[in-house]
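Tutorial sheet, problem 5. The two components below are modelled jointly, 367 residues in total.
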Amino acid sequence: MSREPRQELERWLEAERHLETPEAEAALGALLAALPPVQVSEGFVDRVLGAADRIGRPVWWQRHAWLWRAALVSWLVTGFAALASTLGLVGGVWQSGQAVGLASRAAVGIGRLLAGLLVGADGLARASRAVAQLFSGPSILLFLVICALTTTIAARALTVVIAPERSIRHV
Amino acid sequence: MGPSDQQLVTEAIGGSQEAYRQLLERYRQPVVSLVYRIVRDLSWAEDVSQEAFLKAFRALASFQVERKFSSWLFKIAHNTAIDALRRRRIETVPLETADPDKPDLLDCLPGGDLDSPASKLHSRTLGIAIAEAIANLRPEYRSAVELRFIQGLPYEEIADIMQLPLGTVKTHLHRARKALVEQLSDAGWRPETSGR
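Model answer (structure tokens):
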């Protein structure tokens, strides 16, 4: 700063008296710039970093949590669809000879459900189509389409409802 | 010239501890200064600043790197300080009752090129008067004064940080200057020259 604080004060007060806003602001800025900066204590940075570690920064799977939530809903709905299809067969005329067939179809359905849990979204879609082909019928396909739409809507809703706070709380 | 804010933020989002540290080193003083101006207690200002930085780091994943990081951080710090002030409802702390063992903004004031003890005392007294006058302003005026005259930010950025219309920011600064002039005049600091 080229001037003493008193000179800047004079300059500022004179500018204010003459209603010269730009000059007043410049002088006041120079005057306040002459004040020493706030001295932050030693270790402040380490304290903040230590607190941040205790709280935990979001890891990669947390940053993409919406993907896992959508997958969970898909798996639940697909599993329900497979189970409903299986129960539909049981609701028909029961014959003892159908027990083995029912058991094997149930095992296939469960196996495909487990495969879907392990593979991912694309694998789940293929498993769902495979299940639909096994049971055939337009009603099953329609039901699966409805399940897929429900999954999409639910995933989006979960993302909005469960997603971490995006906006900072403000006055 | 170190890495830009954008680079550091990108690295921090990727989990780089060093990037977090560099951002902290770069902005600890401006943030603590802004918070201190609002809460008027240095040790408390550090606590509030820590809270603000933690909020910022938690929200960093959703920060759009093309935005200006400093404005975003100042906005968080400003809001956190206002929230803290409201929670605590602190009264104006007389400067003379501040903890003498704790370093304070007024503990070292510029003497510049002044050699005589009288001149240094004069400057220190002026510094105390200015600091006290600012501390007696309304919180929003103090924020505006800090951001405009100490951080040197433009009006538009201050309006974004304080989430106020541009005209309101200018009004705050205008009224803050008038209040400061009035307080300093009451304290006996008047222009010695009568004209220009």
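Marking note: Residues 94-115 of chain B have pLDDT under 50 and may be disordered. Full credit if you identified this.
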